[in-house]
Amino acid sequence: LQPLKIEMSAFTVKVLKLIKSIPRGKVATYGQIAALAGKPHGARGVGWILNSCTKSHRLPWQRVINSKGKISFPRRTEEFREQKKLLLKEKVKVSDDGSITLAVYRWRKTVRKPRTAKNTPQMFR
DNA sequence: CGCGTGACTCAGG
DNA sequence: TCCTGAGCCACGC
Questions:
Q1: How far in angstroms lies nucleotide C11's C1' from the CA of residue A73?
Q2: I need a surface site. Which of A6, A40, A45, A109 has the fewest CB within 10 A?
Q3: Which residues of A42-63 are buried (b: 16+ CB within 10 A; e: fewer)?
Q4: A81 or A116, higher pLDDT
């Protein structure tokens, strides 16, 4: 991970890492990424970071969409077409207006909860 | 340190 | 459903 600038906030580092960890064929929302990075209201920050870091960090930027489940770029823009194309290429269904079914394609980050006596399966005890 | 600018989000109307 | 306003966050000046 090559930093664009010498200083990058902890939030930015986390956001970039999270975006890179979204698997092919899945999408996440700006707000979701922000929350996972520790700022439940930092969605705008995520958008800003994407806009400024995509070129230098080779991010799977196409996998980040808005909370309405749509591509955030206006329909006629080159960005919209590119994002849609990239998503279709990885088998994410995108309607003409840029809508994606979050219930189907949303990335659910798997968190490894610390094991306690209660939730430890018998075979691991 | 304040201000303006975004690939944002939510609640109202 | 489609606007608006307000709130929110990062960052460059």
A1: 21
A2: A6
A3: bbebbbebbeebeeebebbbbb
A4: A81
